């Protein structure tokens, strides 16, 4: 085994593996296409709402003004499929830049807390937090 | 390390075999080989370095034998071989093992054409070989196919001659060092050592010459014209192969050989993991489909025929149970971002590091929804110039998304956003 043959063998082997992986993923895609979708989504979300009620977690939103352009936002939402995306879209719409973000899910609820920079921070005073919550809820409502 | 051993006795029969084995193209090789031998410091062989070295010793020996007349005149420079031989052996001197000076080499080279020459003393002094009974006019033709294994038939092997390792080591060290041997030891370590094959006297030089050669200063003064073209070709081919290997790897790092090989190793491991993961997924999918088909058939059957339900054995669903744990890990890097995807069973952990230009969180979360990944935990923040995110997600049941798909799509999305976003000044926020 000299260098040239080792390199050649490596090239051949990589090509083989790539071909195998492509074939398998193609097969998987075909199987996906021909199979039926799962109807389990609705069940999960129904469960989420129930769990939240059981634990007494309520939806809420809390905004704290920190400094200059910075806000600290904490939101508790019912976890639904795609709610995080809606949340981020709302933030984006309001022109917020999320500098530190943390999201946790527990018992069907999602806790979102983030340190946010924004240009129009002054406009969004604490009283308008309800507005924010409504916006998020409405976005969810539109797509659900 | 012993190839040539001093002998007190001598077996003429083996030599004739030797002659048959080692055929040297007399015309071309004689002249060149003498040059080779004489220009020790400028020797350059590669695959057949070992063989050529030994063969050239032989050819040189042979050549010396050819020039008995010159020998007689310059006999003082030619090492003593054995007493049994009929050649003139007067005035041998032992020389030190230092490389011959180029002047000596040149004069030797020049003289060789003319027939009277002063051969390099160094190499020759190391020859304490029994002189083969080569007839002065016999021509030994020797062919070394390029890339052939370095195998040399030692005609003296079965004579059980006392070893002279010290001499041979010096011989090796005095050999030209301009071999393109592997720079790293792992290549040499595997096939190190000079060993005797007890059965048929084949001795194989492997890396010892290279190892011995590497310890000394490399002398790259010139190459032998005979090997120049093939040598360069060989190098070019090898470099091309390295580059080809580099192009196959998705995220190559540096452009040096060690990195190329390292990246290739990592990529091969990653491909093996991916193939394994895909196989498991396909099996699960197939199993699930079979099960659902079977249920349908059973339903249809039971609907059509209320009483007769024993057509299917009930153990079928259990047979598809896949005990192997699906696991997979891969990384993708691009100019501005880095993605690391790890999957264990149905949990996917994604790490994303992106340069702080635009907020990709929106696009990433959209993609995660598309891929049917259920977000369980997200942590993200600024680190200097970069955003760094960690997503802990779970795959929704029924989805058979796999690691490389996730990673590729992710890096794709992020890069596309980068390309689409207008270049912003550094600190607009």
TrEMBL record, chain A:
Residue ranges, annotated region (Disordered): 22-49
A GO cellular-component term linked to this record: nucleus
Record keyword Transcription regulation present: yes
Keyword NADP annotated: no
Major localisation: nucleus
Biased composition regions of type Basic and acidic residues, renumbered to the chain: 22-32
GO molecular function, one term: DNA-binding transcription factor activity
Keyword vocabulary terms for this entry: Nucleus, Transcription, Transcription regulation
Alphabetical list of Gene3D superfamilies matching this protein: Helix-loop-helix DNA-binding domain
Compartment(s) of residence: Nucleus
Domain of life: Eukaryota
PANTHER family named in the record: TRANSCRIPTION FACTOR DYT1 (PTHR31945:SF20), TRANSCRIPTION FACTOR SCREAM2-RELATED (PTHR31945)
Designated name of the protein: Pentatricopeptide repeat-containing protein
Species name: Hibiscus syriacus (Rose of Sharon)
TrEMBL record, chain B:
Superkingdom in the source lineage: Eukaryota
Record's keyword terms, sorted: Nucleus, Transcription, Transcription regulation
GO molecular function: protein dimerization activity
A single GO BP: regulation of DNA-templated transcription
Main location (coarse class): nucleus
Pfam families: HLH
Residue ranges occupied by any BHLH domain in the UniProt entry: 222-271
SUPFAM superfamilies named among the record's database cross-references: HLH, helix-loop-helix DNA-binding domain
GO cellular component: nucleus
Subcellular locations according to the entry: Nucleus
Gene3D superfamilies: Helix-loop-helix DNA-binding domain
UniProt name for this protein: Transcription factor bHLH10
Species of provenance: Hibiscus syriacus
């Amino acid at each position: 085994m000299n260098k040239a043959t080792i390199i050649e063998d490596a090239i051949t082997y990589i090509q083989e593996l790539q071909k195998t992986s492509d074939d398998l993923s193609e097969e998987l895609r075909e199987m996906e296409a021909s199979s039926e979708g799962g109807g389990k989504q609705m069940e999960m979300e129904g469960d989420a709402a129930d769990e939240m009620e059981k634990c007494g977690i309520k939806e809420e939103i809390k905004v704290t003004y920190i400094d200059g352009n910075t806000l600290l936002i904490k939101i508790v939402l019912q976890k639904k499929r795609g709610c995080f995306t809606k949340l981020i879209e709302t933030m984006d719409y309001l022109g917020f830049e999320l500098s530190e973000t943390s999201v946790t899910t527990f018992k069907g609820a999602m806790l979102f807390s983030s340190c946010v920079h924004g240009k129009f921070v002054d406009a969004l005073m604490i009283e308008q937090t309800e507005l924010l919550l409504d916006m998020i809820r409405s976005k969810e409502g539109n797509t659900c | 390390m012993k190839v040539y051993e001093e002998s007190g006795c001598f077996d003429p029969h083996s030599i004739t075999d030797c002659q048959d084995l080692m055929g040297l193209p007399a015309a071309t090789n004689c002249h060149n080989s003498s040059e080779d031998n004489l220009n020790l410091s400028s020797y350059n062989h590669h695959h057949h370095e070992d063989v050529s070295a030994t063969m050239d010793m032989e050819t040189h020996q042979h050549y010396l034998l050819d020039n008995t007349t010159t020998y007689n005149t310059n006999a003082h420079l030619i090492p003593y071989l054995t007493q049994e031989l009929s050649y003139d052996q007067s005035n041998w001197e032992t020389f030190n093992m230092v490389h011959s000076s180029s002047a000596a080499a040149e004069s030797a080279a020049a003289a060789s054409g003319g027939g009277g020459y002063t051969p390099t003393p160094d190499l020759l002094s190391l020859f304490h070989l029994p002189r083969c009974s080569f007839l002065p006019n016999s021509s030994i033709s020797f062919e070394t196919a390029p890339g052939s294994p370095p195998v040399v038939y030692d005609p003296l092997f079965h004579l059980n001659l006392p070893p002279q390792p010290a001499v041979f080591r010096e011989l090796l060290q005095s050999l030209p060092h301009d071999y393109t041997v592997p720079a790293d030891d792992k290549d040499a370590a595997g096939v190190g050592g000079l060993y005797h094959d007890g059965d048929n006297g084949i001795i194989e030089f492997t890396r010892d010459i290279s190892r011995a050669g590497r310890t000394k200063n490399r002398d790259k003064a010139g190459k032998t014209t005979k090997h120049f073209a093939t040598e360069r070709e060989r190098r070019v081919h090898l470099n091309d192969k390295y580059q080809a290997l580099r192009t196959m790897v998705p995220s190559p790092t540096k452009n040096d050989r060690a990195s190329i090989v390292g990246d290739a190793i990592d990529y091969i491991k990653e491909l093996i993991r991916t193939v394994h993961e895909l196989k498991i997924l396909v099996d699960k999918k197939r199993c699930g489909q079979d099960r659902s088909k079977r249920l349908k058939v059973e339903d249809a059957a039971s609907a059509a025929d209320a009483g007769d339900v024993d057509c299917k054995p009930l153990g079928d669903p259990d047979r598809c149970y896949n005990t192997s744990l699906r696991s997979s890990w891969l990384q993708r890097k691009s100019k501005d971002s880095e993605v690391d995807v790890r999957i264990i069973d149905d949990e996917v952990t994604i790490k994303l590091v992106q340069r702080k230009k635009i907020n990709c969180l929106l696009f990433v979360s959209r993609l995660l929804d598309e891929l049917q990944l259920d977000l369980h935990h997200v942590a993200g923040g600024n680190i200097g110039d970069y955003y760094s995110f960690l997503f802990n997600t779970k795959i929704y049941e029924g989805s058979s998304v796999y690691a490389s798909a996730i990673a590729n799509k992710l890096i794709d999305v992020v890069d596309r956003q980068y390309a689409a976003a207008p270049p912003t000044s550094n600190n607009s926020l």
